[in-house]
Amino acid sequence: MLRNDLDAQLLEAHAAKDRPALIRLYQVAAAQANGEVAAGFYLTHAYVFALEHGDPFAEALHARLIAMGRDV
Amino acid sequence: MQTDLSSIHRPIAQANGLPNAHYTDEAVFAEERDAVLHATWAGLAVCADVPENGDAKPMEFLGLPLLLIRDKDGDVRVFQNTCRHRGMILVSEPRKIGGAIRCPYHSWCYSTKGKLVATPHVGGPGQNAHPDMDRDTMGLIEIRSHIWRDVVFINISGQAAPFEEVHADLIARWAEFDKPLYHGGADSTFQLSVRTNYKLAVENYCESYHLPWVHPGLNSYSRLEDHYNIDESGKYSGQGTLVYRQFEGENGACFPDFDGLSDKWLQGAAEYITVYPNVLLGAQRDHAFAIILEPTAVNHTVEHIHLYYAAPHISDEMRAKNTALWKEVFEEDVFVVEGMQKGRYGPGFDGGRFSPAMDGPTHCYHAWVADRILEHRQKQAYAAE
């Protein structure tokens, strides 16, 4: 996905408070990020929205952040 | 300003009621907030306000921002609705919490049990932990609460004796009614916004003296002489009747009775009692009600009325008709409690007198309020020494 498209979709998902879309799009952003700090940043957002939404995938995202040394 | 409460504790025939300032003065109201409403078990809401797991309802009690929530395991809890990070209000409208409560400011997240579970970027971008940020010590501040007859009681000071201990006698008195209560749903709840101090709503509710004058419709089947006073000094008060008439729908249909009631209740007794300081309860063979008096200002109260039944499925039509009947009765009381409020701006009024025969329950309430205030003043004086 092109960066501009991704940004547009993220803004749209935020405006619509579309949690499943936010969880998915922030993971895409993490996968495309340049460097671990940026990846950690986007994964954190995916994790927080998954946590808020009660998405069972939150646990796996949390585990990834812990493995990256970015959460406890 | 400290009010003089000495005349309240005289025998009822000589006693006066609480001075006007307890109904009109902001400073006295603030004292009463601490001494009475924060220090005891006050009614906040009913569990039916959050019927499903994850339901959350922001509320205010005397300016305190609270969050009523049914957690993921079904337990109803009360938290301060305030993020432990920068004090942001967490939930601003009633909604379902699917997973965690996310603060809308910096997205700190809390479980429905109040545990702080995520602190995004707290250690810098993409770094969600910091050695000095111990999540285990930064959960939501929980307000001590207790559920009885579906009412959520809160003790804000955290210092009151356990609810079951404070209200042991009342719980025992109504032990037969310790059965599942089924809230009638959206058509069985309504609010009345009343320009009165909350205590006047209690005082009016406690006594049967006014019934033939204010509710003349009751005279046809529930005469004044059929009522009795309930005044348990230092505990609770209210009134009872020996001739409760069941609500009847089309073709004489009645609501089902609560299971296992003794003849006393089945032959016509019903009771209407105030759980001090601000909850009015009614117990009858076939339905019950709870009224939470929300003290919104020294001279304003919102009455939240909820009707309950002995079974989960009740005819819609009968339920709606019953709600309408009760609404009419409670609305008949509005001019009285608003009138008594207005009357208390007259400086010559000395708290009034009590009928020794009829006003025992009201005097009992005044004495209880006065005791709480005197107790509070004593503690304040002790702390100041």
Task: Note down, in words, how this protein is organized.
The complex is a heterodimer of chains A (72) and B (385). By secondary structure, chain A is mainly alpha-helical. Chain A has helices at residues 3-15, 19-32, 36-53, 58-67. The radius of gyration of chain A is 12 Å and the shape is flat. With 385 residues, chain B is α+β, with helices and mostly antiparallel strands. Chain B has helices at residues 21-24, 26-37, 163-166, 168-173, 198-206, 211-214, 263-266, 316-332, 334-343, 360-384; strands at 42-46, 55-61, 64-70, 76-80, 95-96, 101-102, 109-110, 116-118, 142-148, 151-155, 182-183, 189-194, 227-232, 236-241, 270-275, 279-283, 287-297, 300-309. In chain B, 44% of the residues are buried.
Show the helix and strand layout:
The complex is a heterodimer of chains A (72) and B (385).
Chain A: H1 3-15, H2 19-32, H3 36-53, H4 58-67
Chain B: H1 21-24, H2 26-37, E1 42-46, E2 55-61, E3 64-70, E4 76-80, E5 95-96, E6 101-102, E7 109-110, E8 116-118, E9 142-148, E10 151-155, H3 163-166, H4 168-173, E11 182-183, E12 189-194, H5 198-206, H6 211-214, E13 227-232, E14 236-241, H7 263-266, E15 270-275, E16 279-283, E17 287-297, E18 300-309, H8 316-332, H9 334-343, H10 360-384
Antiparallel strand pairs in B: 1-10, 2-3, 2-5, 3-4, 4-9, 6-7, 7-8, 9-10, 11-18, 12-18, 13-14, 14-15, 15-16, 16-17, 17-18
Helix pairs in contact in B: 2-10
